[in-house]
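Input C-alpha coordinates:
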Protein backbone atom coordinates (compact mmCIF):
# COMPACT_ATOMS: atom_id res chain seq x y z
CA UNK A 1 0.00 0.00 0.00
CA UNK A 2 0.92 3.66 -0.30
CA UNK A 3 4.06 4.31 1.71
CA UNK A 4 4.14 7.21 4.14
CA UNK A 5 6.66 9.22 6.06
CA UNK A 6 3.98 10.65 8.35
CA UNK A 7 5.28 11.81 11.70
CA UNK A 8 2.04 13.25 12.99
CA UNK A 9 1.09 12.94 16.63
CA UNK A 10 -1.63 10.55 17.72
CA UNK A 11 -5.18 11.68 16.97
CA UNK A 12 -7.08 12.59 20.12
CA UNK A 13 -10.69 13.69 20.35
CA UNK A 14 -10.90 16.20 23.19
CA UNK A 15 -14.17 15.95 25.08
CA UNK A 16 -15.07 19.60 25.44
CA UNK A 17 -18.80 19.53 26.04
CA UNK A 18 -18.64 22.48 28.41
CA UNK A 19 -16.49 24.71 26.19
CA UNK A 20 -18.21 27.54 24.38
CA UNK A 21 -16.95 29.76 21.57
CA UNK A 22 -16.14 32.54 24.02
CA UNK A 23 -14.06 30.33 26.32
CA UNK A 24 -11.33 32.74 27.50
CA UNK A 25 -8.76 29.91 27.46
CA UNK A 26 -9.23 29.17 23.77
CA UNK A 27 -9.20 31.64 20.91
CA UNK A 28 -10.23 31.21 17.29
CA UNK A 29 -7.93 33.09 14.87
CA UNK A 30 -9.39 35.39 12.20
CA UNK A 31 -11.29 33.58 9.45
CA UNK A 32 -9.54 34.07 6.11
CA UNK A 33 -11.73 31.89 3.83
CA UNK A 34 -15.39 30.91 3.92
CA UNK A 35 -17.35 28.39 1.92
CA UNK A 36 -20.92 27.16 2.16
CA UNK A 37 -20.10 24.72 4.99
CA UNK A 38 -16.61 25.64 6.25
CA UNK A 39 -14.80 28.65 7.73
CA UNK A 40 -10.99 28.46 7.59
CA UNK A 41 -9.02 30.12 10.40
CA UNK A 42 -5.25 29.54 10.14
CA UNK A 43 -2.96 30.02 13.11
CA UNK A 44 0.06 32.31 12.59
CA UNK A 45 2.65 30.28 10.70
CA UNK A 46 0.22 27.69 9.29
CA UNK A 47 1.58 26.36 6.00
CA UNK A 48 0.05 27.39 2.67
CA UNK A 49 -2.53 25.07 1.13
CA UNK A 50 -3.01 23.92 -2.45
CA UNK A 51 -5.70 25.63 -4.49
CA UNK A 52 -8.27 22.85 -4.17
CA UNK A 53 -7.88 22.05 -0.47
CA UNK A 54 -10.41 24.42 1.06
CA UNK A 55 -13.14 23.78 -1.56
CA UNK A 56 -12.54 20.05 -1.01
CA UNK A 57 -12.88 20.45 2.77
CA UNK A 58 -16.01 22.57 2.34
CA UNK A 59 -17.61 19.87 0.22
CA UNK A 60 -16.42 17.15 2.61
CA UNK A 61 -18.41 18.75 5.44
CA UNK A 62 -21.59 18.52 3.36
CA UNK A 63 -20.90 14.91 2.34
CA UNK A 64 -20.13 13.95 5.95
CA UNK A 65 -23.32 15.61 7.17
CA UNK A 66 -25.34 13.54 4.70
CA UNK A 67 -23.52 10.35 5.73
CA UNK A 68 -24.01 11.08 9.44
CA UNK A 69 -27.65 12.19 9.15
CA UNK A 70 -26.70 15.56 10.69
CA UNK A 71 -28.09 19.00 9.93
CA UNK A 72 -25.30 21.57 9.73
CA UNK A 73 -26.87 24.92 10.64
CA UNK A 74 -23.68 27.01 10.49
CA UNK A 75 -20.21 26.62 8.98
CA UNK A 76 -17.72 24.35 10.69
CA UNK A 77 -14.72 26.41 11.83
CA UNK A 78 -11.42 24.74 10.92
CA UNK A 79 -8.43 26.09 12.83
CA UNK A 80 -5.28 25.07 10.97
CA UNK A 81 -1.97 24.79 12.82
CA UNK A 82 -1.32 23.88 16.45
CA UNK A 83 0.84 26.33 18.38
CA UNK A 84 3.13 24.68 20.90
CA UNK A 85 2.21 27.22 23.55
CA UNK A 86 -1.47 27.68 24.23
CA UNK A 87 -2.84 24.90 22.01
CA UNK A 88 -6.25 23.67 23.21
CA UNK A 89 -5.37 20.11 22.18
CA UNK A 90 -3.50 17.62 24.38
CA UNK A 91 0.27 17.77 23.96
CA UNK A 92 1.44 15.70 21.00
CA UNK A 93 -2.06 15.41 19.51
CA UNK A 94 -2.77 15.87 15.82
CA UNK A 95 -6.10 17.57 16.47
CA UNK A 96 -9.13 17.99 18.68
CA UNK A 97 -12.77 18.99 18.36
CA UNK A 98 -15.08 21.33 20.22
CA UNK A 99 -18.68 22.22 19.58
CA UNK A 100 -17.70 25.44 17.83
CA UNK A 101 -14.44 24.51 16.06
CA UNK A 102 -12.01 21.82 14.94
CA UNK A 103 -8.29 22.29 15.57
CA UNK A 104 -5.80 20.37 13.40
CA UNK A 105 -2.09 20.41 12.66
CA UNK A 106 -2.59 19.62 8.97
CA UNK A 107 -5.23 20.25 6.33
CA UNK A 108 -7.22 18.38 5.37
CA UNK A 109 -7.61 16.20 8.43
CA UNK A 110 -10.84 14.36 7.70
CA UNK A 111 -10.89 12.30 10.90
CA UNK A 112 -11.30 15.46 12.96
CA UNK A 113 -13.73 16.94 10.43
CA UNK A 114 -16.03 13.95 10.98
CA UNK A 115 -16.00 14.74 14.70
CA UNK A 116 -16.70 18.37 13.91
CA UNK A 117 -19.73 17.50 11.80
CA UNK A 118 -21.05 15.05 14.37
CA UNK A 119 -20.61 17.73 17.03
CA UNK A 120 -23.61 19.54 15.55
CA UNK A 121 -25.70 16.62 16.83
CA UNK A 122 -23.88 16.29 20.15
CA UNK A 123 -21.32 13.46 19.64
CA UNK A 124 -21.89 9.79 20.55
CA UNK A 125 -20.37 7.28 22.97
CA UNK A 126 -16.62 7.53 22.50
CA UNK A 127 -15.98 4.02 21.15
CA UNK A 128 -18.47 4.66 18.35
CA UNK A 129 -17.50 8.30 17.93
CA UNK A 130 -13.90 7.37 17.21
CA UNK A 131 -14.88 4.29 15.22
CA UNK A 132 -17.07 6.36 12.90
CA UNK A 133 -14.30 8.93 12.39
CA UNK A 134 -11.95 6.09 11.44
CA UNK A 135 -14.43 4.73 8.88
CA UNK A 136 -15.25 8.05 7.19
CA UNK A 137 -12.10 10.04 7.95
CA UNK A 138 -8.67 10.28 6.33
CA UNK A 139 -6.41 7.41 5.31
CA UNK A 140 -3.13 8.82 6.68
CA UNK A 141 -0.73 6.11 7.83
CA UNK A 142 -0.58 6.69 11.59
CA UNK A 143 1.14 4.52 14.21
CA UNK A 144 -2.13 3.47 15.86
CA UNK A 145 -3.69 2.31 12.57
CA UNK A 146 -2.70 -1.32 12.90
CA UNK A 147 -4.62 -4.53 12.27
CA UNK A 148 -7.92 -4.54 14.19
CA UNK A 149 -7.46 -6.29 17.52
CA UNK A 150 -8.71 -6.55 21.09
CA UNK A 151 -11.91 -7.68 22.81
CA UNK A 152 -15.00 -5.82 21.59
CA UNK A 153 -16.76 -5.51 24.94
CA UNK A 154 -13.58 -4.45 26.71
CA UNK A 155 -13.11 -1.70 24.15
CA UNK A 156 -16.67 -0.39 24.49
CA UNK A 157 -16.51 -0.51 28.28
CA UNK A 158 -13.16 1.30 28.36
CA UNK A 159 -14.67 4.50 26.92
CA UNK A 160 -15.91 7.01 29.46
CA UNK A 161 -16.06 10.73 30.09
CA UNK A 162 -13.36 10.28 32.75
CA UNK A 163 -10.90 8.13 30.79
CA UNK A 164 -11.80 9.03 27.16
CA UNK A 165 -10.83 6.24 24.73
CA UNK A 166 -7.27 4.99 24.41
CA UNK A 167 -5.98 5.02 20.84
CA UNK A 168 -5.22 1.30 21.21
CA UNK A 169 -8.96 0.76 20.74
CA UNK A 170 -9.30 2.80 17.54
CA UNK A 171 -8.61 -0.20 15.24
CA UNK A 172 -11.29 -2.32 16.94
CA UNK A 173 -13.75 0.61 17.05
CA UNK A 174 -13.39 1.42 13.37
CA UNK A 175 -13.55 -2.24 12.34
CA UNK A 176 -16.77 -2.82 14.30
CA UNK A 177 -18.46 0.38 13.10
CA UNK A 178 -17.61 -0.54 9.49
CA UNK A 179 -19.20 -3.97 10.03
CA UNK A 180 -22.36 -2.48 11.58
CA UNK A 181 -22.75 0.05 8.78
CA UNK A 182 -22.09 -2.43 5.99
CA UNK A 183 -24.28 -5.17 7.48
CA UNK A 184 -27.20 -3.15 8.86
CA UNK A 185 -27.03 0.20 7.08
CA UNK A 186 -26.31 3.82 8.07
CA UNK A 187 -29.34 4.01 10.36
CA UNK A 188 -27.33 2.27 13.10
CA UNK A 189 -24.65 4.95 12.95
CA UNK A 190 -27.33 7.66 13.01
CA UNK A 191 -29.12 6.09 15.98
CA UNK A 192 -25.94 5.79 18.05
CA UNK A 193 -25.20 9.47 17.40
CA UNK A 194 -28.71 10.61 18.32
CA UNK A 195 -29.28 8.32 21.28
CA UNK A 196 -25.94 7.97 23.09
CA UNK A 197 -23.59 10.39 24.83
CA UNK A 198 -19.83 10.46 25.45
CA UNK A 199 -19.99 8.05 28.36
CA UNK A 200 -23.21 6.08 27.78
CA UNK A 201 -23.12 2.72 29.53
CA UNK A 202 -22.81 -0.54 27.63
CA UNK A 203 -26.43 -1.44 28.41
CA UNK A 204 -27.59 1.68 26.57
CA UNK A 205 -25.34 0.92 23.60
CA UNK A 206 -26.77 -2.58 23.28
CA UNK A 207 -30.32 -1.32 23.59
CA UNK A 208 -29.87 1.22 20.77
CA UNK A 209 -28.21 -1.29 18.43
CA UNK A 210 -30.83 -3.99 19.08
CA UNK A 211 -33.71 -1.54 18.59
CA UNK A 212 -32.30 -0.26 15.31
CA UNK A 213 -31.24 -3.60 13.79
CA UNK A 214 -33.98 -5.81 15.18
CA UNK A 215 -31.28 -8.37 16.00
CA UNK A 216 -30.19 -9.55 19.46
CA UNK A 217 -26.80 -8.43 20.72
CA UNK A 218 -25.49 -11.98 21.18
CA UNK A 219 -26.33 -12.78 17.56
CA UNK A 220 -24.61 -9.58 16.36
CA UNK A 221 -21.47 -10.42 18.34
CA UNK A 222 -21.48 -14.04 17.17
CA UNK A 223 -21.71 -12.91 13.55
CA UNK A 224 -19.03 -10.25 14.06
CA UNK A 225 -16.60 -12.83 15.39
CA UNK A 226 -16.63 -14.50 11.97
CA UNK A 227 -15.53 -11.29 10.19
CA UNK A 228 -11.85 -11.30 9.27
CA UNK A 229 -9.57 -8.69 10.75
CA UNK A 230 -7.95 -5.91 8.73
CA UNK A 231 -6.44 -2.46 9.08
CA UNK A 232 -8.13 0.92 8.55
CA UNK A 233 -6.83 1.48 5.01
CA UNK A 234 -8.99 -1.44 3.87
CA UNK A 235 -12.30 -1.00 5.74
CA UNK A 236 -12.35 2.81 5.41
CA UNK A 237 -14.95 4.40 3.08
CA UNK A 238 -13.49 6.98 0.61
CA UNK A 239 -16.34 9.44 1.10
CA UNK A 240 -15.44 12.19 -1.37
CA UNK A 241 -14.50 9.98 -4.30
CA UNK A 242 -17.56 7.79 -3.87
CA UNK A 243 -20.26 10.37 -3.06
CA UNK A 244 -19.19 13.54 -4.89
CA UNK A 245 -20.95 13.63 -8.32
CA UNK A 246 -18.37 15.92 -9.91
CA UNK A 247 -15.65 13.34 -9.22
CA UNK A 248 -17.14 10.89 -11.76
CA UNK A 249 -15.27 10.49 -15.08
CA UNK A 250 -16.24 8.65 -18.27
CA UNK A 251 -14.14 5.57 -18.92
CA UNK A 252 -15.36 4.87 -22.45
CA UNK A 253 -16.69 6.56 -25.57
CA UNK A 254 -18.78 3.85 -27.14
CA UNK A 255 -16.54 0.81 -27.19
CA UNK A 256 -13.31 2.80 -27.06
CA UNK A 257 -11.43 3.64 -23.88
CA UNK A 258 -10.68 7.34 -23.45
CA UNK A 259 -7.92 9.22 -21.68
CA UNK A 260 -8.81 10.69 -18.30
CA UNK A 261 -6.36 13.58 -17.97
CA UNK A 262 -5.73 15.65 -14.84
CA UNK A 263 -3.08 18.23 -13.98
CA UNK A 264 -1.90 17.78 -10.40
CA UNK A 265 -0.27 20.96 -9.16
CA UNK A 266 -0.69 23.05 -6.03
CA UNK A 267 -1.89 26.04 -8.09
CA UNK A 268 -4.45 23.89 -9.91
CA UNK A 269 -8.12 23.99 -8.82
CA UNK A 270 -9.04 20.56 -7.49
CA UNK A 271 -5.57 19.64 -6.22
CA UNK A 272 -5.63 18.82 -2.49
CA UNK A 273 -2.73 19.11 -0.04
CA UNK A 274 0.07 19.39 0.62
CA UNK A 275 0.04 16.79 3.38
CA UNK A 276 2.92 14.57 4.35
CA UNK A 277 4.84 15.51 1.22
CA UNK A 278 1.97 14.70 -1.15
CA UNK A 279 -0.67 16.44 -3.24
CA UNK A 280 -3.49 14.68 -5.04
CA UNK A 281 -6.78 14.63 -6.90
CA UNK A 282 -9.53 12.05 -6.51
CA UNK A 283 -11.71 10.95 -9.42
CA UNK A 284 -14.32 8.20 -9.71
CA UNK A 285 -15.25 5.65 -12.36
CA UNK A 286 -18.10 3.17 -12.77
CA UNK A 287 -17.24 -0.48 -13.43
CA UNK A 288 -20.08 -2.21 -15.33
CA UNK A 289 -19.29 -5.83 -14.46
CA UNK A 290 -16.92 -8.07 -12.55
CA UNK A 291 -13.68 -8.75 -14.35
CA UNK A 292 -10.06 -7.85 -14.97
CA UNK A 293 -9.30 -4.26 -15.98
CA UNK A 294 -6.04 -2.94 -17.47
CA UNK A 295 -4.74 0.44 -16.36
CA UNK A 296 -2.68 2.46 -18.84
CA UNK A 297 -1.13 5.72 -17.63
CA UNK A 298 1.19 8.45 -18.88
CA UNK A 299 2.99 11.31 -17.15
CA UNK A 300 4.21 14.60 -18.55
CA UNK A 301 7.88 14.67 -19.51
CA UNK A 302 10.32 14.27 -16.65
CA UNK A 303 7.71 13.38 -14.02
CA UNK A 304 8.33 10.40 -11.73
CA UNK A 305 6.93 9.20 -8.42
CA UNK A 306 3.18 9.19 -9.16
CA UNK A 307 0.85 6.61 -7.63
CA UNK A 308 -2.78 5.69 -8.17
CA UNK A 309 -4.82 4.11 -5.38
CA UNK A 310 -7.97 2.29 -6.53
CA UNK A 311 -10.66 1.85 -3.85
CA UNK A 312 -14.01 0.13 -4.15
CA UNK A 313 -16.90 2.25 -2.86
CA UNK A 314 -17.79 -0.01 -0.01
CA UNK A 315 -16.43 -0.70 3.46
CA UNK A 316 -15.22 -3.73 5.33
CA UNK A 317 -12.27 -6.06 5.02
CA UNK A 318 -13.42 -7.56 1.71
CA UNK A 319 -13.21 -4.18 -0.05
CA UNK A 320 -11.00 -4.14 -3.15
CA UNK A 321 -8.02 -1.82 -2.74
CA UNK A 322 -5.14 -1.74 -5.22
CA UNK A 323 -2.20 0.53 -5.84
CA UNK A 324 -0.36 0.98 -9.12
CA UNK A 325 2.47 3.24 -10.18
CA UNK A 326 1.53 5.83 -12.80
CA UNK A 327 3.65 6.17 -15.93
CA UNK A 328 4.50 3.74 -18.69
CA UNK A 329 4.57 0.33 -16.98
CA UNK A 330 5.40 -2.97 -18.70
CA UNK A 331 3.53 -5.20 -18.27
CA UNK A 332 0.40 -3.04 -18.02
CA UNK A 333 -1.11 -3.28 -14.52
CA UNK A 334 -4.18 -5.54 -14.36
CA UNK A 335 -6.62 -5.33 -11.43
CA UNK A 336 -9.67 -7.48 -10.73
CA UNK A 337 -12.67 -5.23 -10.00
CA UNK A 338 -16.22 -6.01 -8.98
CA UNK A 339 -19.16 -4.18 -10.51
CA UNK A 340 -19.70 -0.77 -8.89
CA UNK A 341 -18.10 2.61 -8.32
CA UNK A 342 -14.41 3.12 -7.55
CA UNK A 343 -12.52 6.11 -6.19
CA UNK A 344 -9.13 6.68 -7.83
CA UNK A 345 -6.67 8.85 -5.94
CA UNK A 346 -3.97 10.30 -8.23
CA UNK A 347 -0.98 11.31 -6.09
CA UNK A 348 2.11 13.39 -6.85
CA UNK A 349 5.04 14.39 -4.64
CA UNK A 350 4.63 17.85 -3.15
CA UNK A 351 6.19 20.56 -5.30
CA UNK A 352 6.39 18.37 -8.41
CA UNK A 353 3.45 19.30 -10.65
CA UNK A 354 2.61 17.05 -13.59
CA UNK A 355 -0.13 16.11 -15.99
CA UNK A 356 -1.31 12.53 -15.58
CA UNK A 357 -3.44 10.58 -18.05
CA UNK A 358 -5.19 7.27 -17.38
CA UNK A 359 -7.04 4.79 -19.62
CA UNK A 360 -8.96 1.81 -18.18
CA UNK A 361 -9.63 -1.10 -20.54
CA UNK A 362 -12.00 -3.99 -19.94
CA UNK A 363 -15.68 -5.02 -20.10
CA UNK A 364 -16.15 -4.20 -23.76
CA UNK A 365 -14.13 -0.98 -23.64
CA UNK A 366 -10.80 -1.61 -25.40
Amino acid sequence: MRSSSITWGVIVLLAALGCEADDPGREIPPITWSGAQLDYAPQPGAYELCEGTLPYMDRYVALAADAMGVEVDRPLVYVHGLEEDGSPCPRGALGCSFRDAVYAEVAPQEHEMIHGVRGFAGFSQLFFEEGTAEVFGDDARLPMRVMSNGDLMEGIESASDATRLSTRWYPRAGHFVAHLQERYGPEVTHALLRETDWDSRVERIIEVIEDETGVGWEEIVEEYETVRECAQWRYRYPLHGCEEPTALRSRCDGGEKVWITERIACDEPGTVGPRDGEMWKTIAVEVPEDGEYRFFSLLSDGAVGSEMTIEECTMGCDKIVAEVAMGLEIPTPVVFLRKGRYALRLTRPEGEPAEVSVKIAGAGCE
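Residues 53-68 form the longest helix (16 residues). The chain is about 25% helix and 25% strand.
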